[in-house]
Amino acid sequence: MADVQTTNQSILVAGGGISGLTAALEAAEAGYEVVLIEKKPYLGGYVTQLYQYFPKLCPPNCGLEINFKRMRVNPRIRFFTMAEIAAISGQEGNYDVTVKIAPRYVNEKCTCCGKCADACESEIDNPFNFGMDKIKAAYLPQGFAFPMRYVLDPSIVGTEDGKKCQDACEYGAIDLDMKESTFDLKAGAIVWATGWEPYDASKVEYYGFGQNTNVVTNVMMERLADLNGPTGGKILRPSDGKEPKNIAFVQCAGSRDENHLPYCSGICCLASLKQSRYVREQYPDCEVTVFFIDIRAMDRLEDFYTMVQEDEKVRFVKSKIAHITQDEETGGLLLEGENTNTGEQIRETFDMVVLATGMVPNSIREVPAPDVSCDEYGFLTNDPDKAGIYGAGCARRPTDVASTVQDATAAALKAIQSIARR
Ligand SMILES: Cc1cc2nc3c(=O)[nH]c(=O)nc-3n(C[C@H](O)[C@H](O)[C@H](O)COP(=O)(O)OP(=O)(O)OC[C@H]3O[C@@H](n4cnc5c(N)ncnc54)[C@H](O)[C@@H]3O)c2cc1C
């Protein structure tokens, strides 16, 4: 069991994405004890899965590495991966929290030599690449994982394969007897930074996601473009591995739709503009069509939109796409809908379609917790009359990294004030 001595002067941060990391670091660097709880086996959240990020189009690991370095040198932050908050009770200045830790089956002696993976025969869908490839059931969650440590999938524990992994490890790092555990801690304030999940594209049935492998989502596209992705960074048509000749981006796939997500996620337009650049950089002849309701690119990101518009192989069609089906004649994907500028019907065929799906909050509503305020979709609203638990980043609203960092810094300050008030 973890030995965590905390007091009501400590700050708890739930979620180790960019917003949780920021809140934890800002509070710790201001002199406060911080415990950071992350559900996945590594820190960094969805930013780790982006190929490049706007506005500068740099690799996300550059920015994350700076934060990990700040963490390494700061003894005031303790973090736990594969951990979740099971329950919260109390009030501002005095919370009691129960944390649940899932077994990793690999302890801190792991040197990442990879011999467990060599010995392991079973494979699982790679969660980091959204199941587009397979990995061994003893695996490093991603190339830049922090902490850099392997994980064993529970499916091989108690099997011959699990035993093989254990025997292959020269360092005694595989512990097949690990069990789920819980521990309790105290905190004076909580930052809730559990981020978002992509909207389930299979719910937008008329777009055929899940039935046609050439219909992918925007988060999958990030992995398809990445060197560490399922195709080594080549954007290839999933059904046959061919280079696409034309790709459609369908905006608001489920968003701004009363039957799915009535709100706008704010960043999907920019994500598609960015991804159209990924395509055009790889394939000088590939045609890109963006089907949109209206493009939302505010402030300095308007320049990015203008730059993409200047590319003669990128076409923008104001429209609503009604269906995506398999075109029996060509084997491509037939998009049907209406051009809302001209009123004309759209019937066009593409090799691949990228659905711009929106962001759904990992809501605090899922956890037994004292009264906190959320909007109707589960985003925390930070009601000033309910101080003590503060939402940060995409747990509060769908947004980009720069806004998330500002928001998390503000949440850290609010958490410090909650402690100072007591
Ligand atoms: C297709 C796409 C492309 C994008 N491209 C860009 C871009 O180029 N530039 C840009 O600025 N932004 C981009 N974004 C937005 C960016 O991904 C978000 O701004 C960023 O992920 C927000 O970080 P976060 O920490 O709030 O949430 P997350 O990244 O979701 O991190 C939350 C963390 O909390 C953890 N967690 C969840 N539930 C729990 C729990 N109960 N207990 C403990 N931990 C939990 C999660 O595992 C995760 O690690 C893009 C988004 C999409 C959809």
Protein described:
Helices cover 22% and strands 24% of the residues. The chain has eight helices and 21 strands. It has helices spanning 18-29, 60-72, 115-119, 160-168, 218-225, 268-282, 301-309, 401-421, and strands at residues 11-14, 34-37, 77-80, 83-91, 94-101, 123-125, 134-136, 138-139, 151-152, 181-187, 189-192, 196-198, 215-217, 246-250, 287-292, 314-326, 333-339, 345-350, 352-355, 359-361, 389-391. The protein has a seven-stranded mixed sheet with strand order 13-19-14-15-16-17-18. A five-stranded parallel sheet has the order 3-2-1-11-21, with helices on one face. A three-stranded antiparallel sheet has the order 4-5-10, with no helix packed on it. Strand 15 (287-292), helix 7 and strand 16 form a beta-alpha-beta unit. It starts with 10 loop residues before the first strand and ends with a helix. Flavin-adenine dinucleotide binds next to helix 1, strand 4, helix 5, helix 6 and helix 8.
